[in-house]
Design brief:
heterodimer; A: alpha+beta; Immunoglobulin-like; 2 domains; 4-stranded antiparallel β-sheet; 2 helices; 8 strands; about 20% helix; B: mainly beta; 4-stranded mixed β-sheet; about 45% strand
Chain lengths: ~150, ~140
């Protein structure tokens, strides 16, 4: 890793086992961090916004935490089984004379595309933003819904 | 500020905390991200607390400790099964020690789209007063 970075050579074949080691080290770091904090850490795709997806019999629900973002600032579109969400989080600048002590909230653009396990009925997709949480309800397409099959006897 | 507005937002896993006192109810506790700034008159605190409703938020100032405590109700309805879970939901908790004397009667709090805006006005005595020096 170090060598490659210093010389700027293209990736040789021998770098792959090292990359693998590096990946393992990262995994271990992640694990131990999880233990020391005493909290379970969710694996993420590392793309903003982080999403939770759930399903019921008829719908998929996609949720994301987007505090301070109004519904009309979001751009949401659906095609087939993919949902795409993009927008920009703006933090209006405060009074010029204000002296900052902490600045942890971040502003910026974001865009994410997520694939759902099956086709959705794109015409009936609904989205709402309440208390900084975006919920997109995607009704499953008729073909994707589970069907009860009656077993005939004789 | 201008350069931060165009950059891409990075995904951040919410930071979990362990509260000083053990909780009676099980569940996760997270630290809300905050901005704190002050001018001559007041200290303003902005906190990201997605999912917290006004009735679920407790703001407490005791002596010089400010406590933010936001309860979040699970957004999932019954009969929903997880497919992908990237963030946890739980309450928000954070404490601050205030260095200035706050006028407790004039504190203003506003919760909008999951962002809390807390105004903590300084007491008159703490606001700097310019003293004109007379010549002669």
């Amino acid at each position: 890793m170090l060598l490659r970075r210093m010389t700027g050579w293209p990736a040789w074949e021998w770098t792959s086992p090292l990359d693998e080691l590096d990946r393992m080290r990262r995994e271990m770091d992640r694990l131990t961090e999880g233990f020391t904090r005493g909290l379970f850490r969710e694996p993420t795709a590392g793309v903003f916004p982080l999403m939770n997806v759930t399903e019921s019999k008829d719908n998929y629900y996609v949720r994301a935490e987007l505090p301070g973002i109004r519904a009309d600032e979001l751009d949401i579109s659906v095609t087939g089984n993919t949902l795409s969400i993009s927008g920009e989080r703006k933090i209006p600048s405060e009074d010029e004379k204000a002296q900052y002590h902490r600045r942890e909230r971040e502003a910026g653009k974001f865009s994410r595309i997520i694939s759902l396990p099956s086709q959705v009925d794109t015409k009936r997709v609904e989205a709402h933003c309440v208390d900084g949480i975006l919920t997109v309800v995607l009704p499953k397409a008729e073909v994707a819904k589970p069907k009860q099959i009656a077993v005939k006897t004789s | 500020m201008a350069d931060t507005e165009s950059k891409a937002l990075q995904a951040k896993v919410k930071t979990g905390v362990t509260t000083p006192a053990e909780l009676t109810r099980p569940g996760l506790v997270f630290t809300p991200a905050v901005d704190i700034f002050e001018n001559e008159k007041e200290i303003t605190l902005l906190a990201d607390m997605p999912g917290v409703k006004a009735e679920g938020l407790n703001i407490d100032i005791r002596e010089d400790t400010l406590t933010l405590d936001g309860n979040v109700q699970s957004p999932e309805g019954s009969g929903e099964d997880d497919i992908l879970r990237e963030y946890g939901t739980g309450k928000y908790y954070r404490q601050f020690t205030l260095s200035q004397v706050i006028d407790q009667g004039k504190i203003g709090a506003e919760l909008k789209d999951g962002v809390l805006r807390l105004k903590l006005p300084k007491v008159e005595a703490a606001t700097p007063r310019k003293i004109a020096v007379k010549a002669n």
